[in-house]
Design goal:
Helices cover about 40% and strands about 15% of the residues. The chain is α/β, with parallel strands linked by helices and about 150 residues long. The chain has 2 domains: about 1-35; about 50-150, Alpha-Beta Plaits (2-Layer Sandwich), CATH 3.30.70. A 5-stranded mixed beta sheet has the order 2-1-5-3-4, covered by helices on one side.
Length: about 150
């Protein structure tokens, strides 16, 4: 019995060290993945990170009719810490310019998102019933936006 207890004590110490090292490696890896100018970095106070449930919820609507536009913007916004909860077509495909709509009443969030994607068109239409903070409607100017500047022709 003594032999078993001493073996257990010796191996449990090794397990604790391995778990701690793996945990540190995962934290370092996560730090490197987040873009430095992401919403999380812009919005954080001190060294505290926002939890996933505090990220602004966004919907991306395709208002120009070009296939794949909303999906690419969805991926781009997620890299910057936005929680994209809906991606679909807008009611019409006749939007000449991209519009960012403040739905939650915090215009700073909408302006931050607009700056990240590269537009100045921000309007306020608060709709608590939608349960999201921002709507992005992509217009015919989508090629001028930042998500598309990263794509090589």
């Amino acid at each position: 019995m003594k032999r078993f207890l001493s073996y257990l004590a010796a191996t449990s110490g090794v397990v604790v060290v391995v778990v701690a090292v793996v945990g540190l490696m995962m934290c370092e890896r996560r730090e490197k993945v987040v873009p430095t100018d992401s919403f999380t970095e812009l919005a954080q106070a001190g060294d505290e990170r926002e939890s996933p449930d505090q990220r602004p919820q966004v919907e991306v609507l395709n208002g120009c009719g070009v296939s794949g536009v909303a999906a690419l913007t969805h991926a781009y916004l997620r890299r910057f810490g936005f929680d994209v909860v809906n991606v679909e077509n807008a009611a019409a495909f006749d939007y000449e310019e991209t519009i960012v709509i403040d739905r939650g009443g915090d215009e700073q969030v909408a302006r931050r998102l607009a700056r990240i994607i590269g537009t100045e068109n921000v309007i306020r239409q608060v709709r608590p019933d939608l349960m999201l903070q921002v709507t992005v409607i992509l217009g015919a100017d989508y090629e001028d936006l930042n998500p598309y500047g990263e794509i090589e022709p």
